[in-house]
Amino acid sequence: MATDQYHEPIELLDEKTRDITRVIKSVMEEFEAVDWYNQRMSATKDKEVYDILKHNRDEELEHAAMGIEWLRRQLPELDEELRENLFKEGPIGHHDDEGEDDEGNKSLNIGKLKR
Fold it and tell me: Fewest beta carbons less than 10 Å away: which of 2, 13, 54, 100?
């Protein structure tokens, strides 16, 4: 078993944590493949080659989406972030001023953890 993907001793990690790591790594690999196919699609002049590469790229996107959905179901915090940030209009990354102090500086809201 490859243990170089873990940052903690594997014997300290439960099976769910190891599965989450497996899926995160898989999603990363799927997006890496998407990038490769995008580059190849951009470089080719042949329409048939382009169509094949696009088909392959789209398959990788499907695989990545499946992994993200599994992760969403396992990690409630990810579910919350995805619901808050995906499929919204307006600027990406724009959040309400919840995390800012009176001077507009970003805060970690550590005080909220005490409540």
Answer: 2
8-44 tens-digit pLDDT? 999 999 999 999 999 999 999 999 999 999 999 999 9
Please report, for the chain, the start and end positions of each structural domain, with discontinuous segments joined by +.
13-77
pLDDT at 53 over 90: yes
- What pLDDT does 24 receive? 97
Q: How many residues can be counted in the chain?
A: 115
Q: How far apart are CA 69 and CA 66, in angstroms?
A: 5
Query: What's the CA gap between 113 and 107, in Å, rounded?
Result: 12
Cα(89)–Cα(17) distance, integer angstroms: 34
Please tell me the distance from the alpha carbon of residue 90 to that of residue 106, in angstroms, as a whole number: 21
Other Cβ atoms less than 10 A from the Cβ of 64: the count is 19
Short-list 95, 99, 97, 103, CA closest to 111: 99
Task: Provide the H-helix boundaries in the chain.
Answer: 15-43, 47-74, 76-85, 110-113
